[in-house]
Amino acid sequence: MPHINAAAALQISMLLFALPAQYFISQWYGTDSAERIQITERLIIASWSTSTRSYLSMDAWADGLKLWLSKTRVCSEQEVSKELVCNVELLILHFRNWYYGENKTRSRAHGAKPHSYLAGSTHVHSPKPEYIKFRVGQVIIHRRFGYSGVIVGWDVKAKVPEEQLQPRYPPVKQHLKDTPHYRILINKANGFGKSTAYVPEEEITVIMGLEVYHPDMETYFSGYDGSKYIMQPWLKKLYPHD
Description:
One of its GO terms (molecular function) is DNA binding. It holds the Pfam family YccV-like. By secondary structure, the chain is an alpha+beta fold. Among the domains are: about 35-100, no CATH class; about 140-240, no CATH class. Helices cover about 40% and strands about 15% of the residues. The chain is built from 7 helices and 7 strands. The protein has helices at about 5-30, 35-55, 60-75, 80-100, 160-170, 215-220, 235-240, and strands at about 140, 150-155, 180-185, 195-200, 205, 220-225, 230. The strands form 2 sheets. A 5-stranded antiparallel sheet has the order 4-3-2-1-5, with no helix packed on it. A hairpin with a 4-residue loop joins strand 6 (about 220-225) and strand 7.
């Protein structure tokens, strides 16, 4: 029996594939050249759309990293350093902030430097000022709108793009700009239209024993102890005193 090398195996596979491929093409494309062109265009558009949702999508890459990290945590004590997992999660946060521009200045001046907005800064919040009343991981209720949520970050005062400050804070509330602000993941169980909020301290109050449902909870927290959520290691690095 003659020896079949890799090249010969490839040729045989192509020959075996040729007949069903020819049948598929004839059935799919038909005989009308105009129809063949239209179907080909649809295939190209569909392929491009799929690629942009996967390989060219920043969300897909970030979600892929999150999935890898969730699997890594299971064996992190045995095979992978916890410090490595923590640093990669922090890198994901940096990446999202850079890509979506949430933490970039909206100034169009040439050479403008980026700023961190809406409690999205990745610098370590230390020392913590005594006047910061609430902590990351605490569950809150909004005094006016009634929704619940969990704190995932804070600023010592409002950090919002300059052009948004005036409509956000009318004259009677201008003083709120200089008070602590908190970034909130809004509880999906409330049926509230938004998924996140950025609110001044005087508009929220802490509540105990209430769990929050949000698709990003596992990104920020590892569990709930009945009074507050336990921060993931990367988040604890940013808020070491909370």
